[in-house]
Amino acid sequence: VAKIGAFIGAYFFPILLKSLGLSHTLLLTFVFSLAGLILTYIAIPEPKGKSLEEVSQEDTAISEPSPAT
After folding, report:
1. DSSP 3-state of 19
2. What is the Cα–Cα distance from 39 to 33, expressed in whole angstroms?
3. For residues 25 and 17, is the Cβ–Cβ distance under 8 A?
4. What pLDDT digit, counting tens, does each position of 24-42 carry?
5. How far is CA 7 from the centre of its chain?
6. How far are the Cα atoms of 6, 40, 46, 50, 61 from residue 17, in angstroms, in the given order?
7. Domain coordinates of the chain in residue numbers?
8. Spatial distance between the Cα atoms of 13 and 25, rounded to a whole number of angstroms
9. Global pTM?
10. Strand locations in 1-69, DSSP E?
11. Which of 24 and 5 is assigned the larger pLDDT?
12. Which terminus of the chain, N or C, has less C-beta within 10 A?
C-alpha cells in the first residue's frame, strides 16, 4: 500500500504543483499526511504493557487464515 501511495504522490505532485502552486500543493500533502497519521493511530492498537511474544502471537493469529468449517 505504501508503494502505491508513493507512486500516486510522485505522479500527481508535478501536476498539482503546476495547477495549484507550491504552497497549496504542500498544504494538500500535509492534509493527506495528517489523515494517514490519524487513521494509523485509530487503526493500530497500542501494545503498551504487552511483551514482544504476546504482540507477535496476536500478529500471527491475524495473518493466519482460519480453517474452513
Report:
1. helix
2. 10
3. yes
4. 999 999 999 999 999 998 9
5. 14
6. 16, 27, 37, 45, 44
7. 1-45
8. 7
9. 0.63
10. none
11. 24
12. C
